[in-house]
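Side project, low priority. Logging it here so it doesn't get lost.
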Amino acid sequence: MARVSRSAYLESALDVLAQAGSEGLTVAGLCSRLGVTKGSFYHHFAGMPEFVTALLEFWEDQRSQRLIAASRAEPDPRARYRLLLGIAVGLPHAAEASLRAWGRSNAEVRAVVARVDEARERHLTESMMMFGLPAERARLRARIAIAVLVGAQQREDPVDVDGLRAMLEELSAELPEGPSDETYLGVCSAPATQPPPKGNRR
């Protein structure tokens, strides 16, 4: 029998969440899906509580932290926003909708979902400020974008990704081309030091 990696269990769990919700997430179900015995599961995880923690860490890392890091590598505001649009429409929406529903009855899940949403919102705020928007306006647009994403995941099954893209594109329709001064990510560049007038030199 082929060996199944730890990450294969975690990826499979996201598929189970998308198709059957948290109620379908069982050791027996995962092992049957992967064609392995329960001994294979317990080789990687002590039990379901440890598995759930690992799954949440995996989702946060793969669908939030890594994607944010990839976005930060793009210095051009509009190119970054296009990248973020692609990331947003490509998220595992059905799995995320199940995680959000699961979080209503599971404090651990709820805390991680909130942390992911907050990290995404902070990064969007940072990215909006690259256009020269004041911090409060950038934060408001970021909050609207997250609300659009979460709303689509909660209301639509499956998520209309073309409609989601159109709504998120609308948020960037009237953005300026870029900072009009030297403000970058909300931090003003220090003014160049001016030499004292010649008449004052001693």
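Brief comment: The mean pLDDT is 88.
Revisit when time allows.
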